[in-house]
Amino acid sequence: MPESLPSLAFLGAGSMGGAILRGVVAAGIPVDGGIVATNRTAARAAELDGLDGVRSVALEREPDGNARAAAEARVLLVGVKPGMVPALLREIAPHVREDAIVISLAAGVTIDTFSSILGDRVAVLRSMPNTPSHVGKGVTGLAAGPAAGPEELGIARRLFETVGTVIEVPEERIDALSTISGSGPAYVYLLIEELTRAAMDQGFDEADARRMTEGTFIGAAALLEAMGEDPAELRRRVTSPKGTTERAIAVLQAAGLQGIFRDATSAALARARELAAESAASPDPA
């Protein structure tokens, strides 16, 4: 039987928090003390009804639901939008257990922001999961704050391994990681969109264009995973000398594809730093 996890509270169990929650349930890992999940509306809370071992709370019906969850659970996953994080932390701060592990799912919100409200003795970690976590193929970056030791980091790692791969990084690298694995699925979908349009320009109808493009991406990713080869080597095997693929690759390289991705990820990193600054500057209510 897999090692158990401590009691869990998902404060804002929306898209990403809900994906992690479902991953824990699907993995069958015992959770000592159970799982509670909060959402603002009854409709969103109802989406989690019926999950084994999960108590789903609608804040519109139980306004103190976040505070109660913080008092009960050892591991608190903060999944609200970045701009809402400081207010949530101020709400739960008086109720957080001494042995709590607080894990952020919010992009751009620093560990310092958490510690400034919860206190520097609380174990805080920043995580950056991505959307393939919904199907157990996620990549999660994990950064531990000063108060989070090996035990707390190990618990967080086991939690996120239920939905994919975990990469431990120092906090100063978490925003850079988000520009690759966090935003990366959108880059892939954009490439699929554009290649589908190119197929349609070649005379294929939309249905066939989508099937061939999506199937190609899915198959190429599956082959990469199965073979364990460097992607450059797999590319070379497809690219026959003086063939059609070589000509197409030359066009992409001449267009500065490497520089385009570098500029795109730099822009994403700049925005992550802006979000961090905005969260840090969030005023404390009088």
Automatic annotation (TrEMBL):
Signal peptide extent: none
Keyword terms of this UniProt record: Amino-acid biosynthesis, Cytoplasm, NADP, Oxidoreductase, Proline biosynthesis
Any single Gene Ontology cellular-component annotation: cytoplasm
Chain ranges of the Pyrroline-5-carboxylate reductase catalytic N-terminal domain: 8-108
PROSITE patterns: P5CR
Domain of life: Bacteria
Keyword NADP attached: yes
Gene Ontology biological process terms, A to Z: L-proline biosynthetic process
A single MF term (Gene Ontology): pyrroline-5-carboxylate reductase activity
Reactions that this protein is recorded to catalyse: L-proline + NADP(+) = (S)-1-pyrroline-5-carboxylate + NADPH + 2 H(+); L-proline + NAD(+) = (S)-1-pyrroline-5-carboxylate + NADH + 2 H(+)
Domain Pyrroline-5-carboxylate reductase dimerisation: 171-275
Major enzyme class: oxidoreductase
Pathway where this protein functions: Amino-acid biosynthesis; L-proline biosynthesis; L-proline from L-glutamate 5-semialdehyde: step 1/1
InterPro entries: 6-PGluconate_DH-like_C_sf (IPR008927), NAD(P)-bd_dom_sf (IPR036291), P5C_Rdtase_cat_N (IPR028939), P5CR-like_CS (IPR053790), P5CR_dimer (IPR029036), Pyrroline-COOH_reductase (IPR000304)
Cellular localization per UniProt: Cytoplasm
EC number(s) from the headed UniProt entry: 1.5.1.2
Binding site for NADP(+): L11, G12, A13, G14, S15, M16
Annotated positions binding NADPH: N66
KW Lipid biosynthesis (keyword) present: no
NCBIfam families: proC (TIGR00112)
Record function comment: Catalyzes the reduction of 1-pyrroline-5-carboxylate (PCA) to L-proline.
PANTHER family: PYRROLINE-5-CARBOXYLATE REDUCTASE, PYRROLINE-5-CARBOXYLATE REDUCTASE 3
Family to which the UniProt record says this protein belongs: Belongs to the pyrroline-5-carboxylate reductase family.
HAMAP family assigned: P5C_reductase
Name recorded for this polypeptide: Pyrroline-5-carboxylate reductase
Species this chain originates from: Microbacterium album
Gene, per the UniProt record: proC
